[in-house]
Amino acid sequence: MSAKQLLRKSVKALLRQVPRGVIESQSKAIADALIPLLGDAKNIACFMSMENGEVDTQYVLKQLFERGSAVYLPRCTSTRETGHVSLRESKKHHMHLTFHRMTSWQQVTEMVPQGKYQLREPPKEDPAPLPAKLDVMLVPAVAFCLQNGARIGHGAGFYDDFFQRYQLQHNGSKPLLIGLSLVEQIVDTIPVEPHDWQMDCIVSGDGEVSWVNR
Questions:
Q1: Binding-site residue positions for ATP
Q2: What CA–CA distance (Å, rounded) separates 85 from 96?
Q3: How far apart are CA 167 and CA 85, in angstroms?
Q4: Which enzyme class, named as a word (predicted)?
Q5: How much is the average pLDDT of 11-36?
Q6: Which residues define the annotated binding site?
Q7: 90-99: per-residue pLDDT in tens?
Q8: What is the pLDDT of residue 112?
Q9: What residue ranges define each of the domains in the chain, with the CATH number in brackets?
Q10: I want to staple 64 with a disulfide (CB 3.0 to 4.6 A). Which of 69, 121, 196, 200 is the partner?
């Protein structure tokens, strides 16, 4: 296994042991620490948490709707389905994310697990939306490093692909990237490759805010 694969495996094993109550309390602390950071940011992308092993984003999402944010959530799709450009030289088509504007918290609660990964996702839109202009993007991971903002995901490259896709759509700009992390997901070092993106800020389950780029 590569260093990344070993790290991913060890952190996932640790996360499986974290009690649900601990995840809930850390997730609430993250939401409370995050909202004041957003200032006048209006357009915010978030993610729908999986059942175990990562921040429960329901607490963040509720507060985003309460503050009147325009909230965008991801859908797992493919370039074959969307017709969007392939960003991987070795593949004519590949999986990627599209982000969809949600109209209300109720719409979020009505989403049910579906597809290969049993994810709660927004309904399909036709045509599939290109990346909307965002102020902030809240990013998941398996692990984060506070020193340089590095992250390691599940290995499929969905978010690195979207960040590149976003820059192509918006003339090289990017939103503020904020990682949301349980305390158990913080590690000392993460191997970084040229295609990897680092966070500008990480908010962790102890309520700490760690800025990397400000």
A1: 4-8, 151-159
A2: 10
A3: 13
A4: ligase
A5: 96
A6: 4-8, 48, 54, 151-159
A7: 889 999 999 9
A8: 86
A9: 3-74+130-211 (3.40.50.10420)
A10: 69
